[in-house]
From TrEMBL:
It catalyses: 2 H2O2 = O2 + 2 H2O. Its EC number is 1.11.1.6. Residues 20-31 have a biased composition (Polar residues). The active site is at H75, N147. It comes from Nocardioides faecalis. This is Catalase.
Amino acid sequence: AAPQARTATGADTGADPHVRTQQGAHLTTATGVKLRDTDHSLKAGSRGPTLLQDHHLREKITHFDHERIPERVVHARGSGAHGYFEAYGTAESICHAAVFEKGETTPVFVRFSTVLGNRGSMDTARDTRGFATKFYTREGNWDLVANNIPVFFIQDGIKFPDIIHAGKPHPDREIPQAQSAHDTFWDFVSLHTEAQHHTIWNMSDRGIPRSYRMMEGFGVHTFRLVNAEGVTSLVKFHWKPKLGVHSLTWEEAQMLGGVDPDFHRRDLADAIESGAFPEWELGVQVFEDNPEQVFEGIDLLDPTKIVPEELAPVQPIGRLVLNKNTTNFFAETEQIAFHAGHLVPGIDVTDDPLLQTRLFSYVDTQLSRLGGPNYNQLPINRPHTEVNDMFRDGFHQHAVHSGVAPYKPNTLDGGCPFAAGADLSEEQTKAFTDAAVRVAESTKVRENPVSYDDHYSQTRQFWLSMSPVEKEHIIRAYTFELGKCYEQAIKERQLQALANIDPVLCAEVATGLGLPAPEPTVPLTDLAPSPALSQLTGGPWPG
Ligand code: HEM
């Protein structure tokens, strides 16, 4: 649809009790007093000065002065939509979560984003894309906070501030705003070579998607599912777009960044507005929950590794449809608070050290971004189920809590399910239970397992899986981005990493940069190419 086809207000006149149309017959103050005039301040005579006693003037200006909240520290630039998830029932044997019961339809909100640019940055920058889904399940909210790249830059969350500081604009001049083309980024990834796998995905066409509607999504970490018998499985989540995976060319991305910085935002909203509802299938790769948490030699707790789909096929478990645009960007897209730790009974985490850090980080950042501990009361964050927590008070508290005993068990406020010997109803037995996973006897250390040491085999496998045109794009992307570095030593160190990935890739980029190509310093491992990694030879679903 043409952008002009968009309705004037986008207003939702439906039954949502949270929507305030602000179109009543009378304008009022925030405290409900009818106003006569909102265009003239109260002055001593028509030529002033303006009087401090003008409450409406002060209230109007003060509220405006406080309209902005901090943008997200990462993923600041985003765009969202409402929809639903419909389960096929195929996951019932491995997970007892209601969201996966056959035919269960769960409302969702999805927010897509870039990672590094600020709120006003262009949509088509070369970057990773966020793909975060909040499922308002009947057992509470589950957030699948995913990216469009299946691996991450780092293996341990303690380095997250470092990679983000390296990727954000230089602190002296705040340049560049939304690209990986600079010294600190390449300095980091050439020193912390675990980042090479994620980086080659960024340099491939996956770094410049054609549309949010045409992106895969990946949970990255391995998660643990629990079935009705209490048996656990390890899984990796995949979103597969019905429209297939498509990218822009670099030239298109650059031009669109200037001509229409809102390209992806507009594309998503226009598609939904015109009834071409974007759709994905959710699938899982399933692994036995063995004590090693290793599959075919691949450490499932290392977030810089994939499991090729040829080794573990992605099995479809449901579909996602986005069918409603936001009514108000701030209330919904900006105020939504995703958290990798928002889990529901049947879905649990693993010990992946990146995931473990995320479990702390999201709530912490939202405390300052959303102004205190009560942001789950915001309409977009409220679960579509009963909330009966023990929380009290705090900034922006909207509930009027009754009762005199804000602790449990107690003998003052009536029955309490937590009292010793209390009868647990059927509903309560379905409550969240942490999977009873054995923690190996161990010593406190600050080190990675040796399985985390191989930074190049899968990076090379990705390269070897590409079609000739995709390889050509990757060479050009490295050459352009590295060409923007001022420091020659950084270019040389990154060329060394490229030599360890593939000598041809290294030689081509070195020629482009006018530098000599170094020899590999590690043995090159030839893992079998994985056709599913290629946008041209893979497909939304194998076959
Ligand atoms: C957003 C931290 C790794 C996906 C965020 C935010 C923080 C954060 C602080 C901003 C949240 C907000 O303001 O509401 C971290 C840390 C990580 C990490 C500390 C590693 C230790 C990852 C990984 C993924 C991911 C591995 C993908 C699997 C996202 C997405 C968003 C986000 C999609 C945007 C959510 C939204 O649209 O509101 N992350 N992150 N992050 N993160 Fe992470």
